[in-house]
Amino acid sequence: MKTTNLSKYGPWALITGASSGIGRELARQVAEHGLHIVAVARRQSRLDELSSELKKQYQVKVRTVQADLREPDAIRTITTATEDLEIGLAILNAGAEMTGAFVQGDEQAHLQLAQLNAVAPMHLAHLYGRQMAGRGRGGIMFVSSLFAYQGVPYVAHYAATKAYLLSLGEALHVELKPFGVDVLVLSPGLTTTEMTANMPVDFSKLPMIPQMPEQVARVGLRALGKKATVVSGIMNKMMAWENRLLPRAAPVSLLGFLLGRALKDGARPVGRVKACHLTR
């Protein structure tokens, strides 16, 4: 399957989480198609490196935006930085994970995870999607996860936020198609990135074959404009599809067993958790 002609979305593409991993590779491959890049990430030094690389190798314009999407004010930072640009392609890739027992995680960290993984991409899709629909053309890519296809114990909240993106993107694929806007949800499996390297999980104990970011990015860009969803990797596709054939509880229990066995000592649930009381 050939890559979609990305020039139809131009002239500018916005990519969140562009400083490393899948986001950085998506920026490279989009720039290779001649689109100018708005690169959004937390680390300015990484953004500067990426900007120099893209300008030199692909002769495109690059605008960097330092923003932490865990903070609600980041949306205003991004929209202000792009108000003079026509964003024709929005790739909403920024995300993070939390590994371990849900109730032992810090409450504020859970709230920030929801903001980063779910609220921020929804907000940006609404803002730029409205502009695209008004112009009659555009593209939006949500980067979700293979874990979006079922509940996953020990990464419960991460998987839930990614399931939100999967559901939202599937619906917007239908809603926005009549307005000339292509929407795709890309769901990678295990990928060799900083995020997975820092997870307290021994992935050798899981039946997962890691992919490189360039492979994942290529799969997503090839599917954009052709599909509503795509899972990168044959083994990953099989894992996603088996959920349609098995009772819903089966893969959840299986993944709970496998991940529980693969957790490193620091992430294993220990003792009892002190009760907390919610107030209005």
Automatic annotation (TrEMBL):
Domain of life assignment: Bacteria
Chief location of this protein within or outside the cell: endoplasmic reticulum
GO molecular function: oxidoreductase activity
Location in or out of the cell: Endoplasmic reticulum
Classification via Gene3D superfamilies: NAD(P)-binding Rossmann-like Domain
EC number: 1.1.1.-
TM region(s), chain numbering: none
SUPFAM superfamilies: NAD(P)-binding Rossmann-fold domains
Alphabetical keyword list: Oxidoreductase
Pfam families for the chain: adh_short
Signal peptide: none
Family: Belongs to the short-chain dehydrogenases/reductases (SDR) family.
Protein name: Putative Short-chain dehydrogenase/reductase family protein
